[in-house]
Amino acid sequence: MSEKPSPLHTALSLAASGVPVLPLRAGKTPFGNCRTCAGNACGGRPNMKSAGPCRCPRVCHAWAAAATDPAVLTSPAWMASWRRAVCVAYHPGAAGLTVVDLDDAAAVAWAHETLPATRTVPTTRGEHWIYRGAMSSHNAVRPGVDIKSTMSYARYLGLGAGTMTALPDTVRALAVKEPPTVRPAPRSISLPTGPGSGKCPHRTPAFLERGIAMAEQRITAARTAIHATVYRTFLAVLSTHGRCGCLTDTHITRLFTAAQAKGETLRHCTDAWTNARTTLGL
User: Fold this and answer.
1) What is the dihedral of CA 134, 264, 123, 83, to 10 degrees?
2) 124 falls in which pLDDT band (50, 70, 90)?
3) 8-state DSSP, 67
């Protein structure tokens, strides 16, 4: 009987094929922040959501630390984690993949009835269905079903069986959620327009459209610190247009859609919008 390969051996094999990997500790969770990064002192994201500007050489930030470079994977900083690792995880989105995580038998049965066949990998309680193509990650898109792709990690559980197929629209559709209806700021707190200035200039269609388009572009162009970029962009839009009542649900939907396309959840969008309004006293 052949000996099971070590997590590091498995990780190096995956990395050689272009799949970014990271070690998981007991409990199948990422390693927590080192002392340098504890308490978000490094400037990265708390709770290992994103590496942000952190340049720590350790495996501190879950999916954001996943690597393919064998020099990184076998560096002294990482070897301490590999010695304690119980299994390997990978960042599907960075490998151009999406994992539909089916958590129980009912979810697996639903997948067989609804989704196109692809490569499947057995898990402890269900299956991973793996498709070619990346998308934003979302938890609980339906009972027992999570989507793991960008800004997420998945456990490596073997090669599985079946031929991997392209990411279908049926999976992408699972992540589409209607943004919440956000009421425009009350007209009673509109900014004064000044004597003789007439109609609020923010209501000029070209001015407002240019502002929303620039906000969408700023979010879309972000490569790091996505959460912070979304919040700052929402804050900028609201500081300019939030008091005159010119923002409509259509404008807000465009901003939320741009943020969700970068991997933000609906909850994060709603929180960022609410926090921006609170900061500005709206």
Assistant:
1) 100
2) very high
3) B
Cβ contact 192:246 at 8 Å: no
Beta strands in the chain (DSSP E): 21-25, 29-30, 87-90, 97-102, 119-122, 127-132, 138-142, 145-148, 154-155
Burial class (CB in 10 A: 0-12, 13-18, 19+), 137: buried
Q: Who contacts 267 (Cβ-Cβ below 8 Å, separation ≥6)?
A: none
Residue 24 has pLDDT above 60, yes or no: yes
What's the Rg (C-alpha) of the chain? 22
Under the banding of pLDDT at 50, 70 and 90, the label for residue 47 is: very low
DSSP at 104: S
Contact predicate 222/262, CB 8 Å: yes
Largest CA distance in the chain: 88
**Consecutive H or E run containing 230:** helix 226-241
pLDDT (average), residues 138-166:
93
